[in-house]
Amino acid sequence: MSSKLKVAIVGSTGYGGVELIRFLVHHPQVEIVSVISSSSAGAPISDGFPHLTDIVVLDLDGVDIHEIAAKADLVFTATPSGVSTQLVPQLLDAGLKVIDLSGDFRLLSGATYEAWYKKPAASPEYLKQAVYGLSEVYAEKLAGVSFISNPGCYPTATLLGIIPALKADWIDHRTLIVDAKSGVSGSGRGTSLTSHYAEMNENFKAYKVNKHQHIPEIEQVLGDIAGEDVTVTFTTQLVPMTRGIMSTIYVTLKGDYTDRDLIGLYRDYYIDHPFVRVRGEGIWPATKEVFGSNYCDIGFSADARTGRLTIISVIDNVVKGAAGQAIQNLNLMMGWEENLGLGFIPVYP
Ligand SMILES: NC(=O)C1=CN([C@@H]2O[C@H](COP(=O)(O)OP(=O)(O)OC[C@H]3O[C@@H](n4cnc5c(N)ncnc54)[C@H](OP(=O)(O)O)[C@@H]3O)[C@@H](O)[C@H]2O)C=CC1
Ligand SMILES: CC(=O)N[C@@H](CCC(=O)OP(=O)(O)O)C(=O)O
Questions:
Q1: Number of the ligand 2 atom closest to the C-alpha atom of 155
Q2: How much is the pTM?
Q3: Which Pfam families does this entry report, sorted A to Z (predicted)?
Q4: Does any ligand 1 atom lie closer than 6 A to the CB of residue 102?
Q5: How many A from CA of 186 to the centre of ligand 2?
Q6: Is 322 near ligand 1, meaning CB less than 6 Å away?
Q7: Which of 23, 30, 276, 300 has the CB geometry, 3.0–4.6 Å to 270, for a possible disulfide?
Q8: CATH code 3.40.50.10800 for 5-129
């Protein structure tokens, strides 16, 4: 009998789910026992995803809580916001561990969720069970828990870029401006006018300016770190590429800190965490340099002329922004090496 952790994936036919499969197939402590679809149960997963032919030889299962509980120890829910709200409580009640990739359990306040997501919030009983999984920042809180809420893609890039400087009190958080750009896979596999080729190709467009649902998530975590309320100006933009997020952060420095000071501060902060790489002086990260990997790369320019700091943080939205961080959180939950099953070099060029 296998002593591996038995894992099921709900939403296995979405971008996050398929990416979970890509990594979990190589994870030494995990066995994928069920790939689940609410719309295509019964068919081999490789019918819809021929790149998995002969690699994942499983038929898609339906969403049946008892069947999942009979097969699996832990479930990844890579399901849309609103779906997880309903599904996750049933999985937890069935005794399963859960790592949820949606936005449904990230915000502590149900009222804040409803204001930004425009959907009914999960019940407070379950909201308070969720541990927020920004791996590098909350690693110690994740060990041994049963339910992790995986961070959003934009919050991951943005928060990892801001937190060390905020924690050190080197920046004035009242001046934070975040200019964030994402590839189209961030909006999921379902077709929409937004992700239509003719709308996206050779285009660069802003959306949800100051209204994005990730704003309260970023402010919640920064408030936790700062010990007081924090607000950010946050602009999201779509760029004509498949994967990648670049979050460019502008903030006023509280002292005469140099790039070298910042590099030292950030390298110290992330010293025990292999997936955040801090660039050397004048070497700014590009999305291609993390493509397909779980890395978050960060670079700086402290401008003595304006007194402002520019921080550039890049991730692959489907990996560090979703499936990769979810597996990193699984590793932290289970007490395994943080990088187990994730040690891939980015795809380049
Ligand atoms: N894409 C990204 O970069 C990121 C995504 N996320 C979040 O992760 C989650 C998954 O995202 P992503 O994979 O991109 O989304 P997709 O739209 O690509 O996939 C979502 C999947 O959920 C399944 N689904 C839909 N309705 C139900 C239901 N009622 N019950 C069970 N399953 C259902 C669908 O599969 P089927 O019809 O086969 O059931 C679908 O393939 C979302 O909450 C998203 O916001 C978070 C960070 C980054
Ligand atoms: C490019 C793009 O459209 N990205 C999506 C990210 C959505 C997402 O990941 O949703 P939750 O984290 O809130 O579940 C967006 O901006 O809404």
A1: 12
A2: 0.98
A3: Semialdhyde_dh (PF01118), Semialdhyde_dhC_1 (PF22698)
A4: yes
A5: 6
A6: yes
A7: 276
A8: no
